[in-house]
Design goal:
- By secondary structure, the chain is of the alpha/beta class.
- The protein folds into two domains: 161 residues, Nucleotidyltransferase, domain 5, CATH 3.30.420; 167 residues, ATPase, nucleotide binding domain (Nucleotidyltransferase, domain 5, 2-Layer Sandwich), CATH 3.30.420.
- It is built from eleven helices and ten strands.
- It has a five-stranded mixed sheet with strand order 3-2-1-4-5, with helices on both faces. Strands 8-7-6-9-10 form a five-stranded mixed sheet.
- The radius of gyration is 20 Å and the shape is globular.
């Protein structure tokens, strides 16, 4: 009998739902809230309200596109954290209600774990070539920057993480400093295409091991704006493409240097990219080039699976559902993901 899972994701400001059947993607619908751009960042209360308004139509559309009715679902998977508490509450409350009404199991999924395993989603018409275990995952997002050794779908170990700010946060805050709208990462990436990545040099924090630090980079960026332009936005504007290109180049250099060190030590030549920042075209290109030069196998997700999405939650729900322990549990059970060493080191987004 086929296993069909609905995944619901509301950890931040994207309301998303996806449906997978036996691990094959049937639908993935996402609504992104635009209201936060006027505030320069995500406003938690507004994010929660946005989820309340959109979760019903998003789930309905995901089921419609998949050609699945509620009673055909085997289970409902939902992100239980980490994330914004109000946003998570909307998603989990809706999922619990749906679980009870349909008498189907409720499966709790860790948001970052979902990102890590996104490469195991099978898409019709595309070659299915997931990573071989073990592999290293560089997870880069607005709230987290991690290097994870993935030994199996349920056994993961963080070997490197940010000590302060995440790479995505560095992109957004530096973008804000030069007057770019939120989210800043995509704006920086687009402007960087026209700039000189060697025009400016920013600090590269010297952190031991595989850990990251981006607070010093942000400070260096602000000092450059002060010293080179006196903070005058009119003077910054003609050089904004060079600033973006140099910022992007520096962040990617920091990321790839740590990944290379991790590969050398672990002797695992398989590297997967995940998280919202994995949509950055230059990062994708540079990782491919690095992998080709070093002889690594590199795995990069489709763009619509890079950012927060319901499909990745559904995939994790599918993997958990198919385990014998969950198969034998009573309906509407909730399985907190506690068997992995990944969860304790997660940072609040």
């Amino acid at each position: 009998m086929s296993v069909t899972i609905l995944g619901i994701e509301t950890s931040c400001d994207d309301t998303s739902a996806g449906v997978l059947q036996d691990g094959v993607l049937l639908s993935n619908v996402t609504y992104s809230q635009e209201i936060h751009s006027k505030y320069g960042g995500v406003v938690p209360e507004l994010a929660a309200r946005g989820h309340q308004q959109k979760i019903v139509p998003v789930v309905r559309e995901a089921l419609c596109v998949a050609g699945i009715c509620g009673k055909e679902l085997s289970g409902i998977a939902v992100t239980f954290g980490p994330g914004l508490s109000g946003s998570l509450l909307v998603g989990t409350s809706f999922a619990k209600g749906l679980s009870l009404s349909l008498n189907r199991p409720l499966i709790a999924v860790n948001h970052l774990h979902a990102h890590v395993l996104v490469h195991f989603i099978e898409v019709k018409g595309q070659e299915y070539a997931p990573p071989e275990f073990p592999y290293l995952c560089l997870l880069v997002s607005g709230g987290n920057t991690l290097i994870i050794q993935v030994r199996s779908p349920t056994e993961m170990h963080i070997i490197g993480q940010t000590l302060d700010d995440a790479a995505g946060e560095a992109f957004d805050k530096c973008a804000k400093a030069i007057g770019l709208p939120y989210p800043g990462g995509p704006c920086v990436s687009k402007l960087a295409e026209k700039g000189d990545p060697m025009a400016f040099r920013f600090a590269r924090p010297n952190v031991s091991g595989y850990d990251f630090s981006f607070s010093g980079l942000k400070t260096s960026f602000l000092y450059t704006l002060r010293d080179a332009f006196g903070g005058d936005t009119h003077l910054i504007q003609p050089r904004i493409a060079d600033l973006c290109a140099s910022l992007e180049h520096t962040i990617i250099e920091i990321l790839l240097k740590k990944v290379a060190a991790a590969v050398d030590t672990t002797r695992i030549p398989r590297v997967a990219l995940a998280g919202g920042v994995s949509a950055n075209e230059t990062l994708r290109l540079r990782l491919r080039e690095k992998g080709q030069h070093e002889g690594w196998k590199v795995y990069i997700p489709e763009r619509d699976l890079s950012t927060d999405n319901g499909a990745m939650v559904a995939l994790n729900g599918y993997l958990l559902y198919t385990e014998e322990a969950l198969k034998n549990s009573s309906a509407c059970s909730c399985l907190p993901f506690s068997r992995t060493t990944l969860e304790p080191a997660y940072r609040e987004m």
